[in-house]
Amino acid sequence: KSEWTLPLDGEATELTGACGVDDEVGEKASLQFVNEGDGKELWKSPVMRRGQAAQPFNVKLAGVNTLRLLVEDGGDGSTEDHGDWLDLKLEHSGKALANYGTTIAVETGALEWTFGVNLGKLEQRRFGMKADPDKTRAPGVYAFPDYIDRNADVALLEPTLDVLGPDGLRNLALRFVSQETTKPSAGVTRTDIRLKDAVSGTGLDLHFLAHEKDDVIETWSTITNGSKDAVTLLRFDSFAFSLGGKDLHLTTFRGGWGDEMNWSEAPVSTGLRRIGNQSFTHPTHGYSSSFVVSDGPAKEESGRVIAGSLAWSGNWHLDFQSEFKESVRVSGGINPFQPQSLAAGASLETPRLILTVSNNGKGTASRNLHRWARHSGFRQEDVTRPVILNSWDGAYFSFDETRLLAMMDAAVKSGVEMFVLDDGWFGNGPNARNSDNAGLGDWQTNREKLPHDIQWLAEQAHQRGLKFGLWVEPEMVNPRSELFQKHPEWAVKLPGREQRLGRNQLPLDLSKPEVEEFAYQVVAGILDKYPGIEYIKWDNNGHLQDGGSQGTSPAGQMNMTTEMTRAYYRILDRLVA
Predict the structure, then answer these.
(1) What kind and span of H or E run contains 378?
(2) From the CA atom positions of the chain, what is the Rg in Å?
(3) Are residues 293 and 429 in the same domain?
């Protein structure tokens, strides 16, 4: 049995054509052809055999949203069956329908990532340098395999989108709908590819931003629940691509406090290799969300290198799965260890992968990413970062104004350009921040340590020719604080469990709108009250050990960590607006 699904969206009026058994088959072939609209049979041929004349048909399609052309066996099995659709003509009004023979190209100056559509399924046709021979297995490499299509061509792949419906079924088969190309700015091309499942209504938009001169592509996805009920996203990746080549090697980066970004390189082995983070608050502390895939061990100035980095500050994963001999699929996004609830009609936009390819080793790939970062990835990319002296290692929590002024004077003599007052400047009375077991959440200047307040201290720095910065950690709270006594429900907690502390503190639940607003007002209020501050050091010193949102719905519990990350981004956007 085979099928061809065409999303019509009610725009088509008529389908005409013919069908028959291919002349290449033997005497055992027997077939029936079916036209089906929105699950209802519109036309069905008699059983057809080799040598019979083609069977013409004319089917009215008014109001039909999804058309399926089916070829079924004639009741005696599929041996030697091979059917043909002939002279198909689809009449429609309104917007143009999807072009199923199209090639979609995402290109920079040197890179090429192309897609095709085969029987409604989006396939990757090419990925790599334009000047290279094509090493991608094609056709048949699904660009974004869903749960049903994950086992195409025998290889049982991890699905990149896996949706659990309200009926408890994982029933998703994405088909091509349309594509659009725009130019948001000079030298940047945006491509959007729209896919949809005809049964559930689930939509998937694949997005690409190609930076022509930097030879960098940003890619991400948007998932839309088109059904009338909430669904559960079991897997919801940002991207997927396939690579061909012999002796592929993978370089990943791991580390810990004071020991960051140690690289580890090994051949891509058979099966699935997954790296990721589930601590939420320290997304690159163990493994980094950056990777390199190369032909053989990666060299600095020669050889093919694919380098990428997932731009996400929460839980993430990267998968490297051997599909066939000399082929690997790379995919990733938000870590699916915590499924997501998606309400009816709602959408989820996933994080972006920043990707480049080089034929001249790691050096060129690194420079590509650096150029992109300067042109598109940084705020204030033209600002030279100052040399900083931070008070922490010299004073920890034990300081007063005299000691801080002495540190500034020494900094000036050493050529330092900015002085940053670190932890310990806030909290009063029994909750004074004199150690890490009190004060977080109470963002009032400690009157005993700093009787002249923060603005005076900033002015002292300016008189010495120094810029001034301040440390904050507004997303954390100590149980010994006025904030916790007033709002214990703002801290993360699993029902019926003891709240486990990390560094004597708890994360605040930024998925709650009132907590997000509190964190924003903390930083915005400090900047408004003390205009002499030119730099904020936003720290994070605790893991999310017990991921529970107090008083939140089941859907809110599932989405908590993702919403906390998005809340953090929204706060930053508001602060720099």
Answers:
(1) none
(2) 29
(3) no
